[in-house]
Write a structure and sequence with these properties.
This protein is an alpha/beta fold. The chain contains 8 helices and 11 strands. The strands form 2 sheets. Strands 1, 2, 3, 4, 5, 6, 7, 8 and 11 form a 9-stranded mixed beta sheet that branches. The chain has a two-stranded antiparallel ribbon with strand order 9-10. Helix 2 links the parallel strand 2 and strand 3. The longest helix has 26 residues. It starts with a strand and ends with a helix.
């Protein structure tokens, strides 16, 4: 069975080469670009020129603060029965490549979607605990049979399907926000999208949630989920993700109490 890859991009010139190189086993790569202003598209064209066997197609579409819609759009543009969703700051490991190829070359695949485990690398080390612990152990649905479900959620989007779902053993590698500047910019961006989603659902917050939810999240990730085992990087990651929770609730409170 043939497989398509869908990659969302927005100013990913630092990451896109590593990502696309790891997808050379795919029969088709669909790039959904949110009108990048850096050299992302030039990098993609360069990769395509260097290997004319790669079937790469680029579609430009404004994100409009809706990651699920970007993924659903990308899925519609694919031409194969199976679709692998991967972010530009991720790569498919050789072990996962082998597992996917073996799976799709088998006689019968009963499942319609698969969780893929993900390893996060931050400050040049692999994070094994804290915020990323569950994704490392349980994974995210990223490999799907086309039209077996739909992506939902404007940010931190999730694939919803009523069909059979299983899990592969090998990893995606993830290299998010490698500098504090990138991290701060990312959580400011994603918190604003999340606030818009919550506001449209009529959800409100209060001063107690603004203060205590981020504190509780830090304690949970750093202590109960053993984030301290990841050293300074683990502390920083736990702190920044708690700050993200603070921004979501503070921005939501400000938005719902406008006069």
């Amino acid at each position: 069975m043939k497989i398509s890859a869908v990659v969302l991009t927005k100013n990913e010139e630092k990451n896109i080469g590593r990502c696309l190189k790891s997808l050379d086993f795919c029969d088709e790569m669909i790039i959904v670009d949110d009108y990048s202003t850096d050299n992302t598209k030039n990098q993609i064209s360069k990769i395509k020129d260097q290997n004319d066997k790669l079937n790469i197609k680029i579609f430009e579409k404004h994100l409009n603060n809706d990651f699920a819609e970007q993924r659903n759009f990308g899925m519609k543009k694919t031409n194969n029965d199976w679709v692998l969703f991967i972010d530009a700051d991720e790569e498919v490991t050789k072990e996962l490549t082998g597992e996917i190829v073996k799976l799709l070359n088998s006689y019968i695949v009963k499942e319609n979607a698969f969780y893929l485990r993900r390893r996060d690398y931050f400050w040049n080390q692999e994070l094994k605990f804290g915020e990323v612990r569950q994704i490392r152990q349980m994974g995210l649905i990223r490999l799907i049979k086309k039209n077996s479900g739909i992506w939902m959620g404007t940010v931190h989007e999730v694939f919803h399907t009523a069909k059979n779902v299983s899990r592969l053993n090998s990893f995606l590698n993830h290299y998010p926000h490698q500098t504090l500047k990138e991290f701060i910019n990312d959580i400011n961006k994603y918190s604003s999208i999340r606030v818009e989603e919550l506001f449209n659902k009529g959800i409100k917050t209060n001063i107690f949630e603004i203060i205590f939810f981020p504190i509780g999240k830090f304690i949970n990730n750093y202590f109960f989920n053993l984030g301290f085992f990841d050293g300074p990087a683990g502390f920083t990651y736990a702190f920044m993700m708690s700050f993200h929770s603070f921004l979501v609730r503070a921005k939501l409170y400000q938005l719902t109490n406008k006069k």
